[in-house]
Amino acid sequence: MESSQLLIVGSSARAAAWSARRAKFSPVAIDQFADTDLAECGPAVKVGDLRHESEAAAREAPSSPWMYTGPLENDPELVERISRNRTLWGNSAAVLRQVRDPWRLAAVLTESGLPCPQLRPPGETATAGRWLRKPLSSGGGRGVREWAVPHPGGTPSAGPAPQSILPTRCYLQQFIPGMVASAVFVAGRREMQLLGMTQQLVNVRWTGSPRFGYAGSLISSRLTQTHAAQFARIGRCLADAFDLRGLFGVDAIVNRRGVWPIEVNPRYTASVEVIERATGIGALSLHAAACRDEPIVVRPEIPADLRCGKAIVYARNSIEIGRPFAEWVAEMNAGRSWPRVADIPAVGQHFDAEQPVVSVLAEGGSATAVRRELRRLAARVVQLTHPR
Prior knowledge:
This protein has helices at 14-22, 36-41, 50-60, 76-83, 93-99, 102-111, 225-242, 272-279, 283-291, 323-333, 367-385, and strands at 5-9, 26-31, 44-46, 66-68, 119-120, 129-135, 145-149, 170-174, 179-187, 192-202, 214-218, 246-255, 258-265, 307-314, 319-320, 341-342, 350-351, 356-364. It is α+β, with helices and mostly antiparallel strands.
């Protein structure tokens, strides 16, 4: 090991930093929020603009390996520049340029006989029906919109009004009905393992999230061993084709026809901490081992039937964090090894509508019980942060 310290750069580094600390690293973070619970984990530098400020901040950080969280997978040039001065634990800029290309991804899946939604680039006519308009540099569902293509005989009977002009830097992805799910993997030079699967919370009104915005993750009994086998095949295909290294995630639609990959996140993902909590797996220990070409040894310590999850609560309108909220958070987290409230903003911090405010976490004997508790905690957050 080069150092017990580990530099983590991303829009929100809190979950990865605490994962690193559980793995006995000393995390140093550069992120856009520097939430109070990130500062409790280790030194944190707040930057307003990741693209233009994080490189300089990284130069000032102690010498150590580094890793990134979202959305740096969309900025391979920045990843390349930071990696000139320190060892990268993760996927290189060259890998990012390949795996984040939706057409290259679709080609790899198709060549391997795996299901894949159809794609259409700007300027190419799509067949009539339901599509999703997605930015080429997307993350967390931001900028995704439903896009209906007119039928030759008129407007389709369902979905939004037909549209014709696709913005530049966007593409169309076929809309696949089903449950949104995610799988987390770790890949080394010679091996790849599926660490777990989660149901993604998307279009969940009680979180206040945008229409396609990521709103959380849930360990769900709806994801079976059959799905695990399909995800494992997908993960092996992608790890081999793109030479992926360390932690990575695959978002997919799960329906009766199987698992349909829709995006690869070649980094520590938002679902990792939920899987860590449900299984006892030390994700950052595995990530470090994979990136150092050491054996990947997975030792789950918690019964696999424990259900847990997290939800992200978004601002309904313009708000400012007050002291009653801070006092409630302290009460909720007192004496707990895993928090019930995380990504905690400081008193006086301002949020605009549809900005993520805080994460709430819960565990229980069933996914239904966990979802119910997440919804209760989210309602309490709204009550304390949105005065009538």
